[in-house]
Amino acid sequence: MILEARGLAKSFGEIKAVRGVDLTVEPGEILGLVGPDGAGKSTLLRLLVGVLDPDAGYAVVGGIKVGEDPEGARELLGYMPQQYSLYADLTVSENLRFFAEMYFVPRAEREKRLERLFEFSRLKPYSHRPAGKLSGGMYKKLALSCALIHTPRLLILDEPTTGVDPLSRRELWKILYAFSAEGVAIVVSTPYMDEAERCHRVSLIHRGRLLVTDHPAAILGRFADELFEVLAENQGKARAVLSAVPGVRRCYPAGSLLKVAVAPGAGGENLVRRALENRAAPFASVEKAEPNFEDIFLSLEESFA
Fold it and tell me: What's the CATH fold of domain 3-220?
């Protein structure tokens, strides 16, 4: 085990940002911390790396208690916050060399590590470009490379794919998979529910509390209701009608569709169709749907409310 946290808690005045969090991460594992903005993801990660002191609980990295020896723990980890500050006037290559010096990477190792990171990030053609003139995706890849220059055993990333294009997102995940395969443990936070399926294990977080931590397939298997997608002529009216029907547990928009979660044994598709027909809420289709992580999150959020 490379990371262990027990009972971590942090408040800012009356706001309880993190509430008694327990988690563990093994070498080579990618743990996804998934939740909406304001869920407590960034605060939890800052507690794990020692940027913030907890009100309660502790974190241990590679056998080192972060609160007792933060500098020793930081030697074992790489941390990429949401607003990673590179030196805009320095080139890609100069930024990497600067962070190599800052992390005391032996001179004999530096060029080899730079070449390796260039290979993963595909930034070598841009090695002489100032960081301030990189695209959003390239900037994030450079920031990730700087966090990896000292070959950490644990990598902690705060929303690394936020604000980047789909291609850059895929490339960032390829880099993470490559280092995970070499035994680097990774904790990555994201507000994107679809990224949960890319992780080995997932922790869904809401209001500073972990709702569940498990393998993606196991979490999806927790969805107990029947789920339907409704294409209605008037989404607002259909939602109002269905939300008032006994047996309908949740009804919420998903783009042009309404998602309707119906309790097992309550009537399923027939219940949804009859309710809409009886209340003159025209619809084009009612289709059975498979739950995704957003559906799981909403059902768990309700149970912990």
Answer: Rossmann fold (3.40.50)
